[in-house]
Amino acid sequence: MKLSPRGTLVHYLQGLLMGAADIVPGVSGGTVALIVGIYERLITSVRAAAAAPVALIRGRRDEARERFNEVYWSLVLPLGAGVVTALLIGARFIPGLLERYPVESRAVFFGLIAGSLAIPWRRIERPGAAHVLIAVVAAVIAFALVGFPPREVLNPTNLGIFLAASVAICAMILPGVSGSFLLLVMGMYEPTLRAVHARDLVYIAVFGAGAVAGLGLFSRLLEYLLSRHHDTTMAALVGLMVGSLRALWPYLDADRRLLAPPSFSAVLVPLVLAALGFLTVTLLVRVSAVASRGPEPRH
User: Fold this and answer.
1) Do 245 and 113 form a contact (C-beta atoms < 8 A)?
2) Torsion sign over Cα 189, 191, 192, 198
3) What is the pLDDT of residue 293?
């Protein structure tokens, strides 16, 4: 396994961004992976890593070794370390920032997502009317999905934790759909953050098992779509990202209904913050493009 110090640091920082994004309802870690240019390699690695132990259990050692070698370990290991670090730290601080500065926080993330919309669209080789239609349909679905009001399950069962994790983890690697938001809709967001912060090992273990199960199944489907229907998938991702902007509109009530700005002057600060988020994405894309030049070793 060949890990260069520079590449390791870059992927660790990318993991920090992904982990921080996954904590914020309305923002997806998959969006960050797409922005920094590691999305396809990450999906391939997740699919292969999930398939290896299954093959080993079936007694197919050669197949397990082959799947194991398909993983971009030089990407996955530092990226995973960054995600875990961000989750442990962010679970303590980010919800507080969102609670104290909801308008300002959502404005920043609105700009980040809006600035990244062109990334998947540019990966479509020959965009046409069909791709626009697919994007519109996906946007409508995402717009309706993120409009559901939040709830909380006070005493979640292990089965509920497992199922919630298996669903939310799929969204966490899907640009435009927030795993944290799905947890919020299912009532599992606050319990999960409390469990992480309190180091509730039983809860974390059950959640982790559900995440692994959901990730293993969904990553295979997603890789298939990216390899066989790449342009269609990218168009759908654009639509999902557009629709998800509803969850990041700075002015929302307690049930996540859209509100108009209270005054013209109140728009100025959120507008500036959104612009900063937009510019941050532009800079991040350029830095990641420079850092990712050259072939990426798997091991």
Assistant:
1) yes
2) positive
3) 53
Query: Cα–Cα–Cα angle for 96, 281, 263, nearest 5°?
Result: 60
Domain limits, the chain: 5-291
Q: Say if residues 193 and 152 touch (Cβ distance below 8 Å).
A: no
Tokens (6 digits) for 290: 């420079």
What pTM did the predictor assign? 0.70
Sequence-separated (6 or more) residues with CB below 8 Å from residue 299: 1, 2, 69, 71, 73, 74
How does DSSP assign 223-240, residue by residue?
HHHHHHSHHHHHHHHHHH
Region at 249 (left for phi over 0; alpha for psi -120 to 50; beta for the rest) = beta
Structure tokens at 96: 């507080």
The answer to whether residues 145 and 247 touch, using CB atoms and an 8 Å cutoff, is no
Asked if residues 164 and 186 have their Cβ atoms less than 8 Å apart, the reply is: yes
Q: Of the ranges 59-68, 235-244, 254-263, 282-291, which one carries the lowest mean pLDDT score?
A: 282-291
Phi, psi of 252 (to 5 degrees): -130, 150
Question: Could you give the C-alpha distances from 206 to 50, 92, 166, 219, in angstroms and in order?
Answer: 17, 21, 10, 20
Torsion of CA 183, 185, 187, 193, to 10 degrees: 40
SS3 258: strand
pLDDT tens, residue by residue, 47-99 = 888 888 878 888 888 888 898 898 988 899 999 999 889 888 877 777 777 77
